[in-house]
Sequence to fold (231 residues):
Amino acid sequence: MDPRLIVALDFDNQPLALELIDQLDSSQCALKVGGEMFTRFGPHFVWQLVDRQFKVFLDLKFHDIPNTVAQSCKAAADLGVWMVNVHAAGGLAMMQTARQALATYGDTRPLMIAVTVLTSMSQTDFATMGVTGDLKERVKQLARMAQEAGLDGVVSSALEVEAIKSICGPTFLTVTPGIRLATDNPNDQSRVCTPEQALKAGSDFLVVGRPITAAKDPASVVRDLLLLMKS
Fold:
């Protein structure tokens, strides 16, 4: 069974990242490598994590013409990662082409999910971008399109999970960043939830970054989260 906790490795220092990873159990949590770390440390860093038996979510949010995104997803699959993502706003054809490119990997293909609306964005941000309509409705629209394209699930805030599950079904995966403990600073996130709220809503995977990586005792925070997820 895939671990439901995904630790976001938002580091600019590779030794510090590996120091944290040494405190984690690959059977209990997955790791997320985003744009900053991949740009700094490249594929070799991802290979290190895979070699340590961690499931890796390569969070590069591909968004380009269909062929470019498809080839990028194949390059990610060749690294041995567990999960890749694209921006649903890239459109149906882009997502379908990428999904078809990964089909050749059979049982070893990574999960493919689509980003709906970044958790840093609020309804006000939507308006300043000239986007009309309700943010939650936009998330639902993009989730439906990702499902039509054959993807495994979407990234959204936990606030939209119930709505996504209601239209896409319980097996359509929801990956939820913006998870904060009750005492945490939301930082640059707008649509945040506590782990309890996310689990109650039905989130399949909780992405937790700074509440773990910035903690004095990261391993203790991970243990507490794992206990909560088992209860």
